[in-house]
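Hi everyone,

Forwarding the result from last night's run.
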Amino acid sequence: MKRPLASAASLVAASMLAISVAEAADQQEVTVWSWFHQPTMEKSIEAFEAAHPGIDVKFTYYNYSPEYITALKAASASGSLPDVIGLQPGSLTQQYREDLAPVNALAAKEWGDDWAEKIFPVNRKQMLMGNPAGDANAYMVPQESQVLAIWYNTKIFADLGLSVPTTYGELKAAANALTEGGYIPMFQGAADGWQNENVFLMLANQFSPGITDRAQTGEVPWTSPELVEAMTAWKALFDDGIFQKGALGAHAYPTGAQLLAQGRVGMMALGSWWMQESKFPPPLSEFVDGMAGFDFFYLPPVREGNPPSPPVGGIDIGYGLTKNGADNPAAWTFLAELTNGVGLQQALNALNDLPAVPGYQPEGDITDHTRALYDRFMADLPKAENQRFASPAVAEALDNGLAGVAAGSLDPEAALAQVQAATDKALAAN
């Protein structure tokens, strides 16, 4: 019995199916994990896939702590890490160094032999933080930078007749006026080690720029007079009412950030990433709409004769190519575009933070005020002091010391002696 002839339509359908199957077979997949803001990452991926139609990026978002840290640990133990992972410099990168592929040769091919020299100095230093002696490999590429500062609500300051404080006395007076006016003076999420570290670094670099870097490498002791003074000044921020009551139990996110956005906080130590609030969807408060109600300053000198805090910052987030990803050429293509290409541009358009390399500007609907803030941060980034710690044990010891001093259970010298002990142990192990 003869088979019936296939219709033209069925032949076309079969042909289209064959083409789609072939295209699917040619499609390369890249897996990525990070805590990076999901809507922004989705825009970066969309732009990347438009430029590289043969590559399909699968992104998994995690909250940083504890979900992301837990997921990395489990995947590392089972050998199932994705192709590309989000990293912070120093301790987190070093924790997974054995799972990561050096990117030096790939980066040199992509951007030239001098690729590292094009990265801002503080970022360049942080890329290698914690590497064993003699290991000049880069295990992560920075995507975004940040500069830490004190953000303040300009409308509240104007209503209360306050100016940007330039001395510690003026800072204390502003905090008192804010409290009397019914506002939180300077919100500190002192339950968060990272925010405490940031403020302490602002203080320490007033007394001696770069001193915490030198302490990490054993060049100066953590118990040096300058660091003891910085720790004493840290305690004074609580005792003098500059931080809010109950700060030790408070979190910067979501609590502090929400209160700042709502106009209930006068000041808060955050970073250049706060500009992204102006790009979040409605409803926005009058203060964050175009950043109209915000500006920033650097912490004024806490001791007469000191300079104000210098810019402190460095890598906000970077990305590493896992050894799994090293076997997937498309993984490096994505990492390169994410850190210095079409993916990075999308992140900057969302004002997620500052770039890790010069030559980029945010594009799109950005107010003149926000652009001026961006330009000021970019001018300060090349001279920023290091924000990061090479050893997780040293960072943890400092976190515990800051909490103990703030609570009154440790004096500054004892707290810093504990940091020194952790440093000695970390240096001996390296």
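Confidence is low (pLDDT under 50) at residues 1-9, 11-24.

Cheers,
N.
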